[in-house]
Design goal:
Elements lengths: L3 E6 L6 H6 L3 E6 L7 H8 L5 E8 L22 E2 L6 E4 L4 E8 L6 E3 L1 E3 L8 E7 L2 E2 L2 H4 L9 E3 L4 E7 L5 E5 L7 E5 L41
Parallel strand pairs: 3-6, 5-14
Antiparallel strand pairs: 1-2, 3-4, 6-12, 7-11, 8-13, 9-10, 9-12, 13-14
Amino acid sequence: QAPGTLWYHSHKHGSTSLNMFNGMSGALIIEDNLPDGYDGKLKAFYNDKLVQQVLVLQQITGANNLVTSGAGSGGGAPPILVNGQYTPKITMQPGQIQLFRVINACVQTPFSFTFGACNTGDPPPAFKQTAQDGVQFAYANYIKSTNGTLAINVAPANRVDALVQAPTKPGLYTFGPVTAPAAFIEVSGTATPMVFPTDEKDFPRQPAFLGGIRESEINLWRRVVYGW
């Protein structure tokens, strides 16, 4: 199995949502610690000081009638929990970078991977996405100027890896929108200035099995036209 942020969950026909609403899901992290591997390269770049946060988002409830909404209907989506807690606190030092591995194990609710500041005017934590759904980015995608500038829509079953940098100003920040945070980030303590990789030699090399298929490797061409 290739390295990455993976997860397990119930797939019993007719009972998947009920089992997941009762917590039958979790993280499976597979590491590649070879020098050019996804984990080995990042750990080496940060001199083995890279803290990892594995964050499993879940909705826990005993009720399975959650499609309807409205007063008295008994429906509506339950709140998102992070590792079993409601709006827990993540601690970071000013300027520190941590690797967030986020798994949306919710049954029905998407999550907006973004950050905010509790004090108006303070810059929120910065981030650079490094993998999606357990598959690491090629350097050309990681280095794009748009990476880290837009919120990421994390649908149920999606996974996002991202290097997250705390602001240099101590204070309280949010993981998720300020209006609906999944967790709070408390920035305090000794300043720990760190930087994102900006050179291809410092970023994990893309495994050969993720490379594009060369025309010389294609033995048979077929033309398929889709239509009604």
